[in-house]
Specification:
α4 links the parallel β3 and β4. This protein is of the alpha/beta class. The chain contains 13 helices and 9 strands. About 35% of the residues are buried. The strands form 2 sheets. A 7-stranded mixed β-sheet has the order 5-4-3-6-7-9-8, with helices on both faces.
Length: about 325
C-alpha cells in the first residue's frame, strides 16, 4: 500500500470539480469545515486506494461526504456509509445533516448510505464488516472518538486506513478548543494507535497538519486494552444512558469479559465524577449567590452610610458658615 505524506497532492483535479461548492458560506461559515489541505488529503487517499467500503462517523453539513462521494464516483464497487448523531445540522436546525450532498450534489447519492439519530454503536452492525477506510470526525473531546474507534475496530479489514480530522484542533485556537473544551481526543488517538502514520504539512508546530491517517498494524485487534484505557482520561461530557447501552451491547458482542468489565467500571467512575462535579458546581453557585446577596446588602448599607455622611457634611458646612457669624455678633455686643 503506497501512501506517503504527499498524498494531498494526488489527483487534486478531482477535488477541484466540487471545491467551489465546499467554499461557499452558510451563516458566515464555510460549508466545508476542512481546510483545502484537509480536503486534498482525504481526496488523495480515496483516489489512491480505490476502497470498496468507506465509513465516516461525523459529517455535519456533509463536506467530507461530498469529498468522498466525488472521489469514488467513477469507482464501480465503492460505497460510502455515513453516521451522525444529529438528524439536523448542528449549526442550523433548518437544515438536515449532510445537506451539502442533497442540495448540491444529488447525482452522487447512489453510492451513499446515511444513518442519523444515534451513536455509531447503534448502526455499525447494519453496516457490517470489511471496512477499508474509516474517517472519524465527531466530538474531538473525550470520550468521543475513542468510543467510535472501539466501536468500528472489530469491523475493519486487516491493515485498514483510519483517518482522524482535527488532530491539532487544540493548537489552532487553544483558549477555545483546548482550555475550554479540551479538544485533544483526536491528537491522542493519532499518537496512541499502532500503525504507519501519514500526515500533510500545513505548518502547525512547523511540520504537521490538522488531519492524519494511520495504516493500522495487522495485530491492532489484539491491542484493545490500550484503547479502552484511553477512556480513563477525563471526560468532557457524559453520554446518555441509552447511548451507553448501545456501546455496552456492542462491546459485549465483540470484546471479552475483562474488556467489558473495564468499560463498565470506567463508565461508572465517570458517572460518579460528573455527579460530584455537579454537586460542587451547585455548591459553588449557591455560595456565589449568597456572596452576591451579601455584597448587595453591603452595598445598600454602604449607600446608607454615604447618605448619612453626606447629610453630616452638609450640616458641618452649615455650622462652619454659621459659627463665624455668631462670633462676630457676640464681639459686636461686647464692644
Amino acid at each position: 500500500m503506497i501512501l506517503d505524506n504527499n498524498i494531498d497532492k494526488f489527483e487534486t483535479n478531482i477535488l477541484m470539480q466540487i471545491n467551489h461548492i465546499l467554499e461557499q458560506k452558510h451563516n458566515n461559515r464555510t460549508l466545508s469545515e476542512m481546510s483545502f489541505t484537509d480536503r486534498s488529503f482525504l481526496n488523495g487517499i480515496i483516489r489512491k486506494l480505490k476502497p470498496n467500503k468507506i465509513l465516516e462517523i461525523g459529517l455535519a453539513a456533509g463536506g467530507s461526504s461530498a469529498i468522498i462521494l466525488n472521489a469514488i464516483k467513477d469507482f464501480e464497487n465503492s460505497t460510502l456509509y455515513s453516521i451522525d448523531y444529529n438528524t439536523k445540522y448542528y449549526q442550523d436546525n433548518s437544515k438536515n445533516t449532510g445537506f451539502i450532498v442533497n442540495d448540491y450534489l444529488p447525482e452522487l447519492k447512489n453510492k451513499w448510505n446515511l444513518y442519523t439519530g444515534g451513536v455509531s454503536a447503534k448502526f455499525i452492525e447494519d453496516i457490517g464488516n470489511n471496512i477499508d477506510v474509516c474517517l472519524l470526525d465527531t466530538m474531538h473531546c473525550n470520550p468521543g472518538e475513542i468510543l467510535d474507534f472501539l466501536t468500528v475496530l472489530p469491523y475493519l479489514k486487516e491493515n485498514a486506513i483510519l483517518i482522524l480530522h482535527d488532530t491539532l484542533l487544540y493548537a489552532m485556537e487553544p483558549y477555545i478548543y483546548n482550555f475550554r473544551y479540551g479538544c485533544t481526543t483526536n491528537g491522542t488517538l493519532f499518537s496512541a494507535i499502532k500503525g504507519k502514520k501519514i500526515y500533510p504539512n500545513e505548518g502547525h508546530f512547523g511540520n504537521f497538519g490538522n488531519i492524519g491517517a494511520i495504516i493500522l498494524d495487522s495485530d491492532i485487534k489484539d491491542r484493545v486494552f490500550d484503547y479502552i484505557y484511553l477512556l480513563t482520561l477525563p471526560w468532557s461530557y457524559l453520554p446518555t444512558d441509552l447511548d451507553i447501552m448501545y456501546f455496552q451491547k456492542l462491546f459485549s458482542k465483540n470484546y471479552d469479559a475483562k474488556i467489558n468489565e473495564y468499560f463498565n467500571g470506567i463508565v461508572l467512575g465517570n458517572s460518579k465524577n460528573f455527579i460530584e462535579m455537579r454537586k460542587t458546581n451547585e455548591l459553588n453557585n449557591s455560595f456565589n449567590n449568597k456572596l452576591s446577596d451579601f455584597d448587595n446588602k453591603f452595598i445598600s448599607f454602604d449607600n446608607k452610610l454615604n447618605l448619612i455622611d453626606n447629610k453630616l457634611n452638609s450640616l458641618i458646612n452649615k455650622l462652619a458658615w454659621w459659627i463665624p457669624i455668631k462670633k462676630l455678633e457676640i464681639n459686636s455686643e461686647m464692644i
